[in-house]
Predict the structure of 3-oxoacyl-[acyl-carrier-protein] reductase.
Amino acid sequence: MRLKDKVAMVTGGGRGIGETTCIRFAEEGAKVVVVDMNGEDIKSVVGKIKSFGGEATGMQVDVTDRVQVEKMVAETVKKYSKLDILVNNAGITADTKLVKMTEEQWDKVINVNLKGVFNCGQAAARVMSEQGYGVILNASSIVGIYGNFGQTNYAATKWGVIGMAKTWAKELGSKGIRVNAVAPGFIMTPMTEKMPEKVLDMMKEKSPLKTLGYPEDIANAYVYLASDEAKFITGAVLSVDGGVVL
């Protein structure tokens, strides 16, 4: 087991890539803290992990709320006496073209995707610095590298979390903390499954592999970067996108 006895916290862990990451971490021996806004989703993921003998606990947290985030980290440390891994996976979209984007759409996405990552990263880094070790992984996107039509706010945040990862890698490396980002491409999630077949085919054509990725592909990348197999990797952006170039 590559993450045996590690304590891993995954934000946005209730569905999609976050859910699969929680399950994969547990399969690799980690004690998983499932963080999400939706209590029913949390209960479902925790139940799935426990069904195969894994260990998990759930916390209903708004990552934009610093008080809630600090309490979340404190309770995790109180329960497990440490925090080894943080996956900053929580994120939202509010897509529209630049000229039509409202201030509310901009602020909402910035708050969750950027401020939320900052809040969680800062709280975790303080604990990890005292421990002298830890891993922080930020969920970026190919949109954060190449941009995408109608996603000014989302692209800004996903580029921003790459900047955070690189900066934190420089600041925290001397404390034994590694920080990396993962940039998924087009992934088949419950959200994309609702898209018209024509749109899905177009997305597949953008990849040299002519296929979409799956949550497991991203979760496996997180497992690798969180494990000791990646002990000499920090400040990197791992693109898991099937070779997509926009």
